[in-house]
């Protein structure tokens, strides 16, 4: 019997029990749909985060206190005061870091923001006017505070779109006074609706001079981080190296393993984000694949039942000249066809649900979320479903091929 005839016979066998065949592949459909959906959402999330990271620009460099964390136990290293004004002045010296274009110290402040009877929690960031240049976000109305106001510890603020909307509604916020941790600040400018830029949620953030934040709100003499910008993207590697050398000389560090700071570029962040989201996607896909094992066991059980029900058919075919290989091929093809059909349906449903999910998420998290599906995910779905059919259909097929034609013809 040729493979073509075996294929036709397998199709006839499956069509004879359509309802049972449909129920048999349900586990495969659910498993493949889940894997396609998870991989699509994982890829969409990865692209969303990477686009936000790229929003800071490829020439952006972030300097953070403490050694670079290698695991959960190292995060305590962040809470150090190794970045102060002397570090800023050393980095601004062109003889130390010639490739540096600008930098802005960052002071993070937690506390309530109030205007008349409205009280909300917003992110308050102490920075210099150069932050707007680095992240490429400028006020839509009003203006940025100047370097002179930063040096004078002025109580001025530039607020995000959502901050303005929640505190002032439709009225003009310029010149109004808000209170941050009970200290009065004059609204100097309002950012346009921008969303997420890097790790900064511009719409829900208030930017104030870092000197004011240090003195009156945080009460510290150090910075949580320093955001710098190289003159060109090509100069980033050398600028990073110059920053490290400058800070090591300043801190009398001769062993790089003992650094009390670490430098991160946008490329570093993108690689880390890609690795984390990829691992998470694989992990969730592995969990979803459990349903494929359950579906495979279901196929094995149904195929064993089918073999028992068709014992006389097997005996008759063997009596007419069918070989053990012919019987094995027929039942194995039935199993693989079933799972492949389940895989195709699962892929189509996975693509559909992925598209619907992307539409919903684009409304929830913003237009940055895009529908993403890869050819690798589709090929994986087809390959896995065929593999499941082959593995779980092998035992029933062997049981069918080993039946004695005489005993099979006597079976009632």
What is the C-alpha radius of gyration, as a whole number of Å?
Answer: 32 Å
Q: Would you list the SSEs in sequence order as H and E?
A: HHHEHEEEEHEHEHEEEEEHEHEHHHHHH
Report the span from N to C terminus: 27 Å
How much of the sequence lies in strands comes to 15-25%
Number of helices: 15
| Low-confidence blocks of residues | none
- Characterize the overall form: elongated
Instruction: Output the structural class.
Output: alpha+beta
Summarize the amount of helix as a percent range.
55-70%
Largest beta-sheet details: 12 strands, mixed
Total domains: 2
Q: Compute the average pLDDT.
A: 79
**How many extended strands?**
14
What does this structure look like?
The chain is of the alpha+beta class and 412 residues long. It folds into two domains: 3-52 and 276-410, no CATH class; 103-230, no CATH class. 55% of the residues lie in helices and 16% in strands. The strands form two sheets. Strands 1, 2, 3, 4, 5, 6, 7, 8, 9, 12, 13 and 14 form a twelve-stranded mixed sheet that branches. A hairpin with a 2-residue loop joins β8 and β9.
